[in-house]
Every structure is written in structure tokens, then in C-alpha cells.
Amino acid sequence: MQAVRQPVRFADSVLIVCVLLLGICVGHPGLGVSGEEGGREPNWAPILWSSLTPYDLPHDGYPFETEHFAVYSNTASERKKEFVGEQTERAFSEIMSILHLETTDSFTFLSHRPVIEILLIEAHWPEWGGFAYHGGFLLSPVACNPYYCSDRVIKHELMHVVGFLLSGPGSAIGMIVDVWFDEGLAEYVAGAREIHTMPAYTHRRSQLAEVMDDFNPVSVHTWENLNASATSAFGVYAYELFELAVRYLFDEDGLAVPVEAVTELYVDLHEGYSFADAFERQFGLSLDDYEAQFNERMLDFLP
Ligand SMILES: [Zn+2]
Q1: Ligand 1 centroid to 159 CA: how many Å?
Q2: Residue 11: inside a domain, yes or no?
Q3: 145 lies in a domain?
């Protein structure tokens, strides 16, 4: 049931689910074709978003570079690119610390330089705020306007990227972790803690009835598990429950597994374990059992 590594299945379609309010997306794109960049030669190649996202977006070829990031844009000022690079470096330090990672030695970079791409999009782009792929992420004006960049969106997208980089090249062509875990972890690391009580939990579940009868976050293994026609309630509400499902794994009143188990899980994925196997290895609980027992466990966990 917990199918993993589905490169063929997803090869021609890019899966995008957006959180309209937060504007958070993650893509697990297929093998695309690199777009030609017009005008000046980029400083270095390849630019991954052209091949690993559905978007062939322009940029001026002159990124602002920090230790771990190259911030591209077609229109943003140097100051803005620098600001975003610095903000993202701080977010990166926090994520590395949470995961107990000291270096990027275990990352698999697909470009020839070990830096993470950021593309700042300043054109009108209403659908989402961020979009992560194996080697970087896109930030739209929803998340990053001239005056402010959302730390939450940056951390969310960056956690996806770190997950991709830790789990190896396979994650560039297909989804290798369950949606609930991928999005829940991104929200957890970004600091979201929305559901704290049983009434809040049951209320959210009832609001998600349009997406899935008796909504169980852990049963959302792939985006296809969700009702594609559902729109209004899905984004924020489902992500809140995904985060809850991830928080339970680490919380001392839940499974109390150290957060750095996530790093080991991604290493397992890199070594070829399925998500279900890696999950059971790291959390000592089978994915099937977690899914079956989720509601019962929440009854114990939430006041
Ligand atoms: Zn996401």
C-alpha cells in the first residue's frame, strides 16, 4: 500500500498541491526538458528548475551567492537577493541543527556545484508561495514581496529540499516519501503547531470531509489519495493534520523519537529502503499500524 519510488507513474505529470492561504507547494516533477535561457550566459549551469519543475522561468543569470545558496531572479535587486540568501542561510542553520547535521557531505547535488538554487519570482504568480524540487525552490510574491519574506514558507520549502538532497537522486524523479510525512515534516520544521486539543482535531477532521470521509492524515500516501476536486478546505486544514501526525512521532507524549531520526530515515531511503520500511526502522512502528491506530493515538495524545 505504501508504494514508493514511482518515477514512471509521475514521469509526465507534475504533482502540485497548493495551500492557498500559506501558498506552500511541493512538486515531485518528472524528467523534464531543460529550457533554453535567452540573453546573457548564466554564470553556471545547469539550472535545475528548468528541468525539475514545470516552470521555464526567466532569470538574469547572475545569482547572488551565499555559502549554501544561489539566489536567482529576473527582476529583484541585488539587495533583495542578498536579503533572501541571508534569511535562507539562517533557516538552513536551524534545519541542520534540528536534524543534527553538521555538514552537507551526505547531500546529493545534481548540479555540479553543491549549492541550493532559489528563484525569486516577482511577476504575478497567484497560485502558490513556494515550490520545492530536488535542488532548490521557487519563491513567489505570495511568500516574498519587496518588504517581507515568509520565514515559514522558506523553512517549509527548504525542508523539502533537504529531504530531497538527503534521499538521493531518486527523489528527483519521483515521490519517495508519503505526502503526509513530507508536508507534515516541512510544517513541523517551519514551526507550525496548529492543532493542540481534541476538539480542534475533530473540528478539522469534520472540515476535511469534503476531501476524504473520516479524514486520516496518515492515509494520504500520495496526492492521488485526496479528492482532486476538493479545494477550499484542503490546504491549510490538511497540512495542520499532517503536521500533527509528524509532531506525534517526536513529542515526549507521543512516540518520543528524537527528531534526528529523520536524517536516518532519509539515509535509509537513499540506500533503497521503501518509505514504509524506513519509517518502521526509525520509528519502531509500522506505517500500517500508525495509520490504523491514528485516531486512537490522538485520543491519548491530545487533551
Ligand atoms: Zn510542501
Answers
A1: 9
A2: no
A3: yes
Q: How many domains does the chain have?
A: 1
25 alpha carbon – ligand 1 mean position (Å): 5
What residues have a C-beta under 5 A from ligand 1, the ion? 24, 26, 183, 186
Phi/psi of residue 238, nearest 5 degrees: -65, -40
Domain enclosing residue 79, as ranges: 16-301
Ligand 1 centre to CA of 186 (Å) is: 6
Q: CATH code at 69?
A: 1.10.390
Q: Is residue 5 part of a domain?
A: no
Q: Cα separations (Å) of 188 from 3, 23, 195, 280, 298?
A: 24, 16, 12, 20, 17
State the distance from the centre of ligand 1 to the C-alpha of 225, rounded, in angstroms. 16
Q: What is the pLDDT along the chain (303 residues), one digit of tens a residue?
A: 333 333 322 222 333 333 333 334 454 333 222 333 344 444 444 578 888 888 888 888 889 999 999 999 988 999 999 999 999 999 999 999 999 999 999 999 988 789 999 999 988 777 788 999 999 999 998 898 878 899 999 999 999 999 999 999 888 777 789 999 999 999 999 999 999 999 999 999 988 887 778 889 999 999 888 776 555 556 678 999 999 999 999 999 999 999 999 999 999 999 999 999 999 999 999 999 999 999 999 999 999
Residue 78 lies in a domain: yes
Distance from residue 148's CA to the centre of ligand 1 (Å): 20
* Cell of residue 262, nine digits: 529523520
User: What distance in Å separates the CA atoms of residue 5 and residue 171, rounded to the nearest whole number?
Assistant: 8
